[in-house]
Amino acid sequence: MSSPRDWAELLRVSALFTVPGDALAGAAASGLRPGARTALAAGASLCLYEAGMALNDWADREEDAAERPHRPLPSGRIAPAQALTAAAALTTAGLGLAFAAGRPAALTATALAGTVWAYDLRLKHTAAGPAAMAAARGLDLLLGAVATANSRTSTVSSGHAVRRSLLPAAALGAHTYAVTAVSRTETRGGAPGRSLAALGATAVIGALAGAGPDRPGIGSRRAFARTALAGAYAATAARPFLHAALNPSPPLTQRAVGGGIRAMIPLQAALAARSGALTSAALLTGLVPVARRLARKVSPT
Predict the structure, then answer these.
(1) Rounded to whole angstroms, how far apart are CA atoms 161 and 151?
(2) Which of 77, 118, 216, 299 could pair with 72 in a Cys bridge, judged by C-beta atoms 3.0 to 4.6 Å apart?
(3) pTM over cut 0.85
C-alpha cells in the first residue's frame, strides 16, 4: 500500500511552496489587493501543479525505470493507474476552483491545464519543452491577475490586469525556461552551455526584478525590498548554475535545477515588491526557509 511519503515524493511537495507566489505576484502586478478570488486562483494553481507532477511520472515511468528506479512508480510503491487518476482528479479540482473565481480565471486555467498536459504527454522531450513550461508559469501568474481583477470590488478590467502582468509573467517564464533547459540533462550531465546560459538569464532577470518605478511615500521601502529580494533570487540561482557550468556532472546539474526551483520564491517576492505589494513580498519570503527544510526530506526534482 502506498504511504503518504510515497505520494509526497510523487507530487514533489517540497516544490509546492513555489506555486502560491504566482497568484500573489499576479495580483500585485494588477495593482489590486489579493482577495478571496486570488485564494481560489492559488488553490487552482496548486492543484494543476500537482496534476502535472503526477502526470509527469506517469508519462516517464519507462524512462524512470532505467534512469531513476527509486522513484515511486518504477519502484512499485505507487501504481501507474493511481498516478494517472490523481492527475485527472487534481486537474478537475483545479479547473473547478478557477471556475469559482470567474470566467476570465476559468479560461486562463483551462489554457494552463492544456499546456501542462501537452508538456507531459507530448512536448517534454521536444525542442518546445522549455517554452511550454515557461508558458505554463506565465499563465499561472496571469491566472492570479485576472482572478483578482474579477472580484466584485475591483475597478480594473481583466484585460488591463493582463497587460500590467505581462512583464512579470515574462520574467517568471524566462526563469522557468532556463531551469527547464538545464533539467533536460540532469540525469546525464554534460551540458555546461545550458547552465552558463541560465546563469546569464539569472543576471538579466535579477536586474529586471530589482528595477522599477517608485511612488512617493513607499518608494524607498519598495526600492529596498525589491533590490534585496532580487539579490536573494540571484544568489539562490546563480551559484548552482555556475557550479554546473564549471563541472557539468549529474549531481551538480541536479543541484542547479533544485536551486533554480527554490529561486522562484524570492523571484516572485521581488516581482510583488516591484509592484508595491510589500505585504505579499514579506509573506512569500517567509516560505523560503520552510521550502528549504522540506527540500532536504523530499527532492523538488
Answers:
(1) 12
(2) 77
(3) yes
